[in-house]
Amino acid sequence: MGLERWLPGQAMLSAKEPTTPVRLRLALEELGPTFIKLGQLLSTRSDIMPAAYLSELSKLQDGAPPVSAAEIRSLIHQELGATPEQLFASFDDKPLASASIGQAHAATMTDGTEVVVKVRRPGIVSRIDEDLEILQNLAAHASRRWEAAADYNVTGIATEFADTLRAELDYLREGRNAERFAENFASIPDIYVPTIFWATTTSRVLTMERIRGIKVDQIAALDSAGIDRGQVAARAARAAAKMIFEDGLFHADPHPGNLFIQPGGRIALIDFGMVGEINEKLRGQLGTLLFAFTSNDPDKVSSALRTISVTRPAVDSDVLRRDAARFIQLYEGHALREVEIAPLITQMLAILRNHHLQLPREMAMLLKMVLMTEGMGVRLNPEFNLGEILRPYAKALAQDRFSPRNLAERLGKAGWEAAELGMILPEKLRTLIENMDGGVEVHLRAEELEPLVGRVERIGNRLVAGMIAAAFIRGIGELTAADRERLRTWQNPLLGAGLGAAGSLGAYLAWTSRRKKYKGPR
Fold first, then answer.
1. pLDDT attached to residue 518
2. I want to staple 272 with a disulfide (CB 3.0 to 4.6 A). Which of 177, 183, 278, 381 is the partner?
């Protein structure tokens, strides 16, 4: 209203208001750990979130005030049946880090091995369960009342988030994940996974070998240590490719705090609470998508995008094909090793978002991991190209999708399923016929019937009006066809016919008026 010029502190009042993404980040931070984790998850979902929100939500910090040493010691005693002094040669009461779910403390095993003891915060499970129930209820209400929420499958996102967060609460699962990664990289000396000490590990306490090294984003420290940054970037990319295309198990959160560079350029990974898996179905869909992209066929690309999506909204096939064609033209004539992966993924995700298509959880986590790996590689080496490293793996996957062996396996599986269906089909048909003999009930909501009832009413109104008009015209025709002698006294019968028609018309109008006022079943 322009009144601020009359008030003190005009400069403060006229300062630029925070943007909506900033306000969302601040609100999530104020709501606590569950909502901070939700924002961190959404910051990785380029298929549903605009760029401005992704950038702001990535700033969310998973920090929390430290839990007192007395509470930590009490919890360790409850879980492990002994005090920290009885379990470890040394235990530092001052935490190394304090996050929303757990708190980490440095300790030493009796054999001198340095370890980190992660302890889950007291009461955090009940608080998170309550928050998750609220979120899932909100998602269910939104899906029923908001079309866009149903298109983007917000109930699925809420369920995915709940599963992911509850998995992070279970330190036994994190320990098992770490052992799986250690087994997968046992023959590769360039990648190291810390040891889990199971004797002092439960679902609430995790004891893991302490990793020392330089964080991967500390460029100056890496240079001072004489470490070849380009070699480190290539090793990290090859490790990511192995996880995706060979193991089917990948680290879904490779941010700089989870990667340490040790002497000689060896990469040590920590924090295995969030991992992704690629099953046979998803692997096949990924191979189909890569094959469609390399074939430069818009029809194949659009079909692959719809196949890999977990949502099935009404999609304009022509518009999707046109978007796919424009997407292909940007990279047509370029080898994969010449293509920057991040812009390619970003543009593909923009197409999915525009058509309300949503990726499965594992695929979204996979693309997030690829984007983070390329970003880290470029920081380490400006000439780094992830496409060059991924190219042989992607080519092998696309070719394997249509190899004779793979086709034979798929045909064999399809034949087995067809035979199984043939065995159970007669029983299913018999059950269906028996149920139909007892009568079939059809349940419809009132709002679904409104368009149909309205149309029937309009047709009925026209029929009634037509019948009245036909009767009126016929009466006039019969009168005019009468002989002249009867025409001398035409006034009386014509007057009767007119009054009859007028009465019918009046009754019809009264009937329609009552029908409009009546709100019950029709």
1. 47
2. 177
